[in-house]
Specification:
alpha/beta, Nucleotidyltransferase, domain 5, 2 domains, five-stranded mixed beta sheet, two-stranded parallel sheet
Length: 152
């Protein structure tokens, strides 16, 4: 009698098609997606709307945005960092700003530190030289000049 029940159960299993439960795999995919979204960090370069960079035919978008120190030079010669409310009055202030970000990058393992210079197209070139020299005094020698790409 017990063997009849066992035989009937086995025959029922043979006739029934096996189905795979995908809900646990879907849960796992969503958990991995959420994990990578939370653990990754976005690199955002603050753009000062008051700066109108020059255009260039050979301009290219930089592929690596890590380790940048953004300095904005307005058309009237005023110099700002990421924060549009903090103006740098002297070369020493620029050097201190670049050096502090370079130290932060070094402490977090991001090297090399690059100067991302966003200068207005109408600014006097002496102001650009002032910023580059101040960054050089802080030990940052790699300079990225911000410009717009035009059609070739």
């Amino acid at each position: 009698m017990a063997s009849d029940k066992l035989r009937n159960a086995i025959e029922a299993l043979d006739e029934e098609e096996m189905k795979m439960d995908m809900s646990s795999m879907i849960d796992l995919v969503f958990l991995l997606l959420i994990f990578f979204m939370v653990s990754s960090h976005l690199i955002i370069v603050q753009i000062d709307k008051r700066v109108e960079p020059p255009t260039a035919k050979n301009a290219a978008v930089a592929e690596n945005a890590t380790g940048r120190v953004v300095v904005n030079v307005l058309s009237d010669g005023r110099i700002f960092g990421d924060d549009p409310n903090s103006e740098f009055a002297t070369s020493d202030a620029i050097t201190d700003y670049v050096d502090s970000i370079k130290q932060r990058n070094t402490d977090s393992g991001v090297t090399p530190t690059r100067l991302h210079l966003r200068a207005d197209k109408n600014v006097d070139t002496r102001m650009i030289k002032k910023v580059v020299q101040a960054a050089g005094e802080a030990g940052v020698f790699d300079v990225i000049f911000g410009s717009y790409v035009v059609e070739k």
